[in-house]
Specification:
By secondary structure, this protein is α/β, with parallel strands linked by helices. The chain contains 9 helices and 9 strands. Strands 1, 2, 3, 4, 5, 6, 7, 8 and 9 form a 9-stranded mixed sheet that branches.
Length: about 260
């Protein structure tokens, strides 16, 4: 495991391969870089994969929970990583929350990005778990109480599911991501630090079109978390975008995408 020590925190990452074609790979919420390791099977002599633990995940550590992650900070972190690992250009691969980090990285450094592969990316239509900072600050304490005393919240979600207002897959996701105190703390801290960290889609679309950056979007046919129909407005504005629909749900998309690419 490698560590990039910055004034904002410690970014953990694992490198695989020795090639000069660099891929930065970002995992989803509640995961770590290990969940993206199926991509290792796609290595060859020309490629080097850098699997990154996002802050508050894996072994990465954010210094101050009262400091939000800004785009200027993230750009400096990526540039520090480029200097440390000695590369000037790179590809981006991101799953779910990692898709949002990939999009923002492209927004900040479009001239450095050789291609994008996005797997059910968050950030195109903002997900439930990254929206806290869009609410007034006086509501933050209410969200905090939900995180640390979740039983009433679980009951509300269950009732909404029973009347058909919430998908069962979302109920399962919520309970899984909040089943322990440490997981609930992770949800809350991710909300606080990443809440305002959102891509400017208009800028990204313009850059992708003008630069003709290769981009592939992988979606799950049965994904209830990030649905293909919510990504249509984005994908329709990039004529050369390749859209791949795979016969799986959200949780199986990583392995299915690797299988599809390898074939």
């Amino acid at each position: 495991m490698n560590f990039l020590k910055t004034k904002w925190g410690k970014l953990a990452y694992a490198t695989k391969g020795d090639g000069n074609d660099i891929f930065l790979i970002f995992h989803g919420f509640g995961q770590s870089h290990e969940d993206m390791l199926p991509f290792e099977s796609l290595l060859n002599e020309h490629r080097k994969f850098i699997f990154i633990d996002v802050f508050y995940h894996g072994r990465s550590a954010w210094r101050d929970p009262n400091l939000t992650l800004s785009k200027s900070i993230w750009k400096e972190i990526i540039c520090e990583l480029m200097r440390k690992e000695e590369f000037a250009e790179f590809h981006l691969i991101g799953y779910s929350m990692g898709g949002k980090f990939s999009l923002i990285t492209y927004e900040l450094l479009p001239e450095k990005v050789k291609s994008l592969k996005l797997l059910a990316p968050d950030g195109i239509k903002t997900g439930l778990w990254y929206s806290l900072n869009s609410y007034p600050s006086f509501l933050h304490q209410s969200f905090r109480s939900v995180i640390f005393k979740p039983n009433r919240f679980f009951k509300i979600i269950e009732n909404l599911e029973q009347v058909g207002l919430v998908e069962s897959s979302l109920t399962k996701f919520v309970k899984n991501e909040m089943k322990t105190r440490s997981k609930r703390a992770q949800v809350y801290l991710t909300w606080r630090v990443f809440g305002g960290f959102q891509p400017q889609l208009g800028t990204i679309i313009t850059e992708i079109r003008n630069r003709k950056t290769p981009i592939t979007l992988y979606i799950g046919e049965f994904d209830k978390m990030i649905k293909g129909e919510n990504l249509k407005r984005f994908s329709s504005k990039i004529p050369h975008l390749e859209l791949i629909t795979l016969p799986v749900g959200h949780g199986q998309l990583i392995e299915e995408t690797v299988t599809y690419i390898s074939k």
